[in-house]
Amino acid sequence: xxxxxxxxxxxxxxxxxxxxxxxxxxxxxxxxxxxxxxxxxxxxxxxxxxxxxxxxx
Length: 57
Prior knowledge:
Blueprint (H helix, E strand, L loop, with lengths): L8 H42 L7
């Protein structure tokens, strides 16, 4: 792969646009779903051992 410093400006802009679209359209939404789902799973597992939330009985 060619170094970014030696690339033609047009080629570099195309590559940066592709990378931005990949990050904005695919990577961040997938990471957001994984983080929220992982947190929900962790809370679910915690509640299996600690019991559901609510006032003490």
